[in-house]
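ok so for the tutorial part 2 we go from a plain amino acid sequence to predicted C-alpha coordinates. step 1 is just haveing the sequence, like this:
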Amino acid sequence: MHYLLGSDAVKNLNNRRANAQGDYYTQDEFSQIFSDIWLELNRQDPELFPAEEIIRDSALFKASPFHQLSDDQIAAEESIMDALSEALAGSGNSADSGLSRLIFVQGVAGTGKTVLLSHLFYRIATEMDINGRINDEDDEDILGTDSSPKISKEDRRKAYILVNHNQQMHVYNQIASKLGLQKHFGEVALKPSRFINRFSEKTASNRAIADKPRGKADVVLVDEAHLLLTQGDQGYSGKNMLHDLLRRAKVVIAVFDPNQILQTSQRWSEEDQDMLFPQQAESDVQKLLLAIAGSWSDLCH
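step 2 — the prediction. this is what the C-alpha coordinates look like for a chain of 301 residues:
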Protein backbone atom coordinates (compact mmCIF):
# COMPACT_ATOMS: atom_id res chain seq x y z
CA MET A 1 0.00 0.00 0.00
CA HIS A 2 2.83 2.35 0.91
CA TYR A 3 4.58 1.90 -2.44
CA LEU A 4 1.44 1.71 -4.57
CA LEU A 5 0.37 5.12 -3.25
CA GLY A 6 3.39 6.54 -5.10
CA SER A 7 2.55 4.80 -8.38
CA ASP A 8 0.98 7.09 -11.00
CA ALA A 9 -0.90 4.11 -12.44
CA VAL A 10 -2.83 3.55 -9.20
CA LYS A 11 -5.92 5.75 -8.89
CA ASN A 12 -7.54 4.24 -5.79
CA LEU A 13 -6.36 2.24 -2.78
CA ASN A 14 -8.83 0.33 -0.65
CA ASN A 15 -6.67 0.04 2.45
CA ARG A 16 -8.59 -0.88 5.60
CA ARG A 17 -5.64 -2.01 7.69
CA ALA A 18 -4.12 0.12 10.41
CA ASN A 19 -0.57 1.38 10.09
CA ALA A 20 1.71 -1.43 11.25
CA GLN A 21 3.94 -0.58 14.20
CA GLY A 22 6.33 -2.33 16.53
CA ASP A 23 8.66 -5.27 16.16
CA TYR A 24 7.79 -8.69 14.82
CA TYR A 25 9.58 -11.92 13.98
CA THR A 26 11.89 -11.67 10.94
CA GLN A 27 11.39 -7.88 10.74
CA ASP A 28 15.09 -7.48 9.98
CA GLU A 29 14.61 -9.52 6.80
CA PHE A 30 11.53 -7.68 5.57
CA SER A 31 13.25 -4.94 3.54
CA GLN A 32 15.30 -7.32 1.44
CA ILE A 33 12.40 -9.72 0.87
CA PHE A 34 10.12 -6.86 -0.15
CA SER A 35 12.73 -5.36 -2.50
CA ASP A 36 13.18 -8.74 -4.22
CA ILE A 37 9.40 -9.10 -4.67
CA TRP A 38 9.02 -5.54 -5.94
CA LEU A 39 11.86 -6.02 -8.42
CA GLU A 40 10.05 -9.03 -9.91
CA LEU A 41 6.75 -7.11 -10.02
CA ASN A 42 8.54 -4.26 -11.79
CA ARG A 43 9.90 -6.71 -14.35
CA GLN A 44 6.38 -7.99 -15.07
CA ASP A 45 4.58 -4.61 -15.10
CA PRO A 46 6.86 -1.53 -14.91
CA GLU A 47 3.94 0.89 -15.27
CA LEU A 48 2.01 -0.40 -12.25
CA PHE A 49 5.18 -1.19 -10.26
CA PRO A 50 7.79 1.49 -11.07
CA ALA A 51 11.39 1.03 -10.01
CA GLU A 52 11.82 1.20 -6.26
CA GLU A 53 14.07 4.27 -6.42
CA ILE A 54 11.42 6.14 -8.46
CA ILE A 55 8.79 5.38 -5.83
CA ARG A 56 11.00 6.42 -2.93
CA ASP A 57 11.95 9.69 -4.64
CA SER A 58 8.34 10.67 -5.30
CA ALA A 59 6.64 13.44 -3.31
CA LEU A 60 3.67 11.14 -2.71
CA PHE A 61 5.85 8.52 -1.03
CA LYS A 62 7.60 11.10 1.15
CA ALA A 63 4.26 12.45 2.43
CA SER A 64 2.54 9.04 2.65
CA PRO A 65 0.54 8.27 5.83
CA PHE A 66 1.85 4.69 5.70
CA HIS A 67 5.38 5.43 6.90
CA GLN A 68 6.16 3.53 10.09
CA LEU A 69 6.40 6.09 12.87
CA SER A 70 9.15 6.17 15.47
CA ASP A 71 8.32 5.66 19.13
CA ASP A 72 8.58 9.40 19.76
CA GLN A 73 6.36 10.21 16.80
CA ILE A 74 3.78 7.71 18.08
CA ALA A 75 3.89 9.34 21.53
CA ALA A 76 3.39 12.78 19.96
CA GLU A 77 0.52 11.51 17.81
CA GLU A 78 -1.26 9.87 20.74
CA SER A 79 -1.00 13.11 22.73
CA ILE A 80 -2.57 15.01 19.84
CA MET A 81 -5.32 12.42 19.38
CA ASP A 82 -6.15 12.54 23.08
CA ALA A 83 -6.40 16.34 23.01
CA LEU A 84 -8.48 16.17 19.84
CA SER A 85 -10.91 13.62 21.28
CA GLU A 86 -11.31 15.73 24.39
CA ALA A 87 -11.98 18.89 22.38
CA LEU A 88 -14.53 17.26 20.07
CA ALA A 89 -16.28 15.56 22.97
CA GLY A 90 -16.68 18.95 24.65
CA SER A 91 -15.02 17.78 27.84
CA GLY A 92 -12.21 20.33 27.86
CA ASN A 93 -12.04 23.81 29.37
CA SER A 94 -13.75 25.24 26.29
CA ALA A 95 -16.70 22.86 26.47
CA ASP A 96 -19.37 25.51 26.77
CA SER A 97 -17.48 28.54 25.50
CA GLY A 98 -17.52 27.87 21.77
CA LEU A 99 -13.80 28.63 21.66
CA SER A 100 -11.36 26.83 19.40
CA ARG A 101 -8.33 24.77 20.37
CA LEU A 102 -4.94 25.26 18.74
CA ILE A 103 -2.40 22.43 18.72
CA PHE A 104 1.08 23.43 17.60
CA VAL A 105 3.61 20.90 16.29
CA GLN A 106 7.06 22.44 16.21
CA GLY A 107 10.41 21.10 15.07
CA VAL A 108 13.32 21.82 12.79
CA ALA A 109 13.41 20.65 9.18
CA GLY A 110 13.84 16.90 8.75
CA THR A 111 12.17 15.81 11.99
CA GLY A 112 9.22 14.18 10.20
CA LYS A 113 6.51 16.74 10.87
CA THR A 114 4.81 16.31 7.47
CA VAL A 115 4.74 12.52 7.83
CA LEU A 116 3.21 12.89 11.28
CA LEU A 117 0.57 15.30 9.97
CA SER A 118 -0.29 13.04 7.02
CA HIS A 119 -0.62 10.04 9.32
CA LEU A 120 -2.73 12.08 11.74
CA PHE A 121 -5.11 13.11 8.98
CA TYR A 122 -5.54 9.52 7.82
CA ARG A 123 -6.22 8.36 11.38
CA ILE A 124 -8.70 11.15 11.99
CA ALA A 125 -10.57 10.35 8.78
CA THR A 126 -10.68 6.59 9.33
CA GLU A 127 -10.87 6.20 13.11
CA MET A 128 -12.90 9.18 14.35
CA ASP A 129 -15.83 9.07 11.93
CA ILE A 130 -14.65 12.32 10.32
CA ASN A 131 -15.01 12.44 6.53
CA GLY A 132 -14.40 8.70 6.27
CA ARG A 133 -14.00 6.83 3.00
CA ILE A 134 -16.30 8.05 0.25
CA ASN A 135 -18.28 5.68 -1.94
CA ASP A 136 -21.22 5.86 -4.32
CA GLU A 137 -23.69 5.38 -1.47
CA ASP A 138 -22.55 8.56 0.27
CA ASP A 139 -25.00 10.57 -1.84
CA GLU A 140 -27.75 9.06 0.31
CA ASP A 141 -28.31 9.71 3.99
CA ILE A 142 -26.46 7.35 6.29
CA LEU A 143 -29.02 5.01 7.82
CA GLY A 144 -29.10 5.00 11.58
CA THR A 145 -30.07 2.30 14.06
CA ASP A 146 -33.09 2.08 16.34
CA SER A 147 -31.15 4.04 18.97
CA SER A 148 -29.54 6.65 16.70
CA PRO A 149 -31.03 8.68 13.85
CA LYS A 150 -29.62 8.74 10.35
CA ILE A 151 -26.91 11.31 9.63
CA SER A 152 -26.90 13.35 6.44
CA LYS A 153 -23.72 14.18 4.56
CA GLU A 154 -24.08 17.79 5.67
CA ASP A 155 -24.19 16.78 9.35
CA ARG A 156 -21.14 14.53 9.28
CA ARG A 157 -18.01 15.81 10.95
CA LYS A 158 -15.62 17.51 8.58
CA ALA A 159 -11.81 17.58 8.57
CA TYR A 160 -9.53 19.43 6.17
CA ILE A 161 -5.80 19.50 5.48
CA LEU A 162 -4.39 22.84 4.35
CA VAL A 163 -1.05 24.09 3.06
CA ASN A 164 -0.10 27.41 1.48
CA HIS A 165 2.20 25.75 -1.04
CA ASN A 166 0.93 24.73 -4.47
CA GLN A 167 3.06 21.60 -4.96
CA GLN A 168 2.40 20.21 -1.49
CA MET A 169 -1.32 20.96 -1.84
CA HIS A 170 -1.33 18.89 -5.04
CA VAL A 171 0.39 16.02 -3.18
CA TYR A 172 -2.23 16.04 -0.41
CA ASN A 173 -5.01 16.10 -3.00
CA GLN A 174 -3.55 13.04 -4.69
CA ILE A 175 -3.28 11.20 -1.37
CA ALA A 176 -6.83 12.12 -0.31
CA SER A 177 -8.23 11.06 -3.70
CA LYS A 178 -6.34 7.77 -3.89
CA LEU A 179 -7.39 6.82 -0.37
CA GLY A 180 -11.05 7.63 -1.04
CA LEU A 181 -11.19 10.61 1.33
CA GLN A 182 -12.49 12.97 -1.36
CA LYS A 183 -14.18 12.59 -4.74
CA HIS A 184 -13.01 15.81 -6.32
CA PHE A 185 -9.87 17.94 -6.19
CA GLY A 186 -9.95 20.49 -3.37
CA GLU A 187 -12.72 18.98 -1.24
CA VAL A 188 -10.65 18.23 1.87
CA ALA A 189 -7.12 19.21 0.76
CA LEU A 190 -6.90 22.86 -0.21
CA LYS A 191 -5.15 26.18 0.30
CA PRO A 192 -5.96 28.20 3.44
CA SER A 193 -7.43 31.11 1.45
CA ARG A 194 -9.93 28.82 -0.25
CA PHE A 195 -10.92 27.24 3.06
CA ILE A 196 -11.42 30.68 4.65
CA ASN A 197 -13.53 31.80 1.70
CA ARG A 198 -15.64 28.63 1.92
CA PHE A 199 -16.45 29.32 5.59
CA SER A 200 -17.17 33.04 5.18
CA GLU A 201 -20.20 35.22 4.66
CA LYS A 202 -20.50 36.43 1.06
CA THR A 203 -21.26 39.81 -0.45
CA ALA A 204 -24.00 40.31 -3.05
CA SER A 205 -21.33 39.68 -5.70
CA ASN A 206 -20.37 36.38 -3.97
CA ARG A 207 -17.09 37.75 -2.63
CA ALA A 208 -16.01 36.22 0.69
CA ILE A 209 -15.81 38.48 3.74
CA ALA A 210 -12.81 37.27 5.76
CA ASP A 211 -13.85 38.96 9.00
CA LYS A 212 -17.30 37.34 8.93
CA PRO A 213 -16.97 33.58 9.52
CA ARG A 214 -19.87 31.30 8.66
CA GLY A 215 -19.93 27.83 10.18
CA LYS A 216 -17.11 25.75 11.63
CA ALA A 217 -15.20 22.71 10.49
CA ASP A 218 -14.44 20.12 13.15
CA VAL A 219 -10.72 19.67 12.51
CA VAL A 220 -8.25 21.59 10.36
CA LEU A 221 -4.67 20.38 9.92
CA VAL A 222 -2.21 22.93 8.58
CA ASP A 223 1.13 21.87 7.13
CA GLU A 224 3.89 24.50 6.99
CA ALA A 225 1.79 26.94 9.01
CA HIS A 226 4.73 29.35 8.96
CA LEU A 227 3.74 29.99 5.32
CA LEU A 228 0.36 31.37 6.37
CA LEU A 229 -0.07 35.05 5.55
CA THR A 230 -0.05 37.64 8.33
CA GLN A 231 -1.40 40.32 6.01
CA GLY A 232 -3.84 40.46 3.11
CA ASP A 233 -3.06 40.01 -0.57
CA GLN A 234 -5.02 39.67 -3.82
CA GLY A 235 -6.48 36.30 -2.89
CA TYR A 236 -6.94 36.93 0.83
CA SER A 237 -8.73 39.95 2.29
CA GLY A 238 -8.06 39.21 5.96
CA LYS A 239 -5.22 40.24 8.27
CA ASN A 240 -3.96 36.92 9.67
CA MET A 241 -4.72 33.51 8.21
CA LEU A 242 -4.17 31.52 11.40
CA HIS A 243 -6.55 33.75 13.34
CA ASP A 244 -9.15 33.36 10.59
CA LEU A 245 -8.71 29.57 10.59
CA LEU A 246 -9.29 29.45 14.35
CA ARG A 247 -12.57 31.29 13.88
CA ARG A 248 -13.68 28.60 11.41
CA ALA A 249 -12.64 25.35 13.12
CA LYS A 250 -13.17 23.67 16.46
CA VAL A 251 -9.60 22.35 16.45
CA VAL A 252 -6.60 23.54 14.43
CA ILE A 253 -3.48 21.36 14.34
CA ALA A 254 -0.63 23.41 12.88
CA VAL A 255 2.91 22.38 11.94
CA PHE A 256 5.00 25.48 12.56
CA ASP A 257 8.72 26.19 12.05
CA PRO A 258 9.52 29.89 12.68
CA ASN A 259 12.99 29.40 11.18
CA GLN A 260 11.45 28.82 7.74
CA ILE A 261 9.62 32.16 7.49
CA LEU A 262 11.07 33.75 4.37
CA GLN A 263 8.64 36.47 3.27
CA THR A 264 7.58 39.72 4.88
CA SER A 265 3.93 38.74 4.38
CA GLN A 266 4.49 35.70 6.65
CA ARG A 267 6.28 37.38 9.55
CA TRP A 268 4.71 37.51 12.99
CA SER A 269 4.82 40.64 15.12
CA GLU A 270 5.80 40.42 18.79
CA GLU A 271 2.17 41.13 19.70
CA ASP A 272 0.97 38.22 17.56
CA GLN A 273 3.58 35.88 19.03
CA ASP A 274 2.56 36.85 22.56
CA MET A 275 -1.04 36.02 21.65
CA LEU A 276 -0.09 32.59 20.33
CA PHE A 277 2.38 31.78 23.11
CA PRO A 278 1.02 33.56 26.20
CA GLN A 279 2.98 33.48 29.43
CA GLN A 280 -0.22 32.96 31.40
CA ALA A 281 -2.75 30.16 30.93
CA GLU A 282 -5.56 32.63 30.24
CA SER A 283 -6.20 33.19 26.54
CA ASP A 284 -9.07 33.53 24.12
CA VAL A 285 -7.94 30.28 22.52
CA GLN A 286 -7.39 27.06 24.43
CA LYS A 287 -3.95 25.76 23.48
CA LEU A 288 -1.89 22.63 23.71
CA LEU A 289 1.75 23.18 22.75
CA LEU A 290 3.58 20.17 21.45
CA ALA A 291 7.25 21.06 21.22
CA ILE A 292 8.75 18.41 18.99
CA ALA A 293 12.37 19.09 18.12
CA GLY A 294 15.48 17.22 17.08
CA SER A 295 14.94 13.54 17.83
CA TRP A 296 11.33 14.10 18.94
CA SER A 297 12.40 13.23 22.48
CA ASP A 298 11.42 16.52 24.14
CA LEU A 299 7.67 16.25 24.23
CA CYS A 300 5.87 18.63 26.57
CA HIS A 301 2.26 19.73 27.10
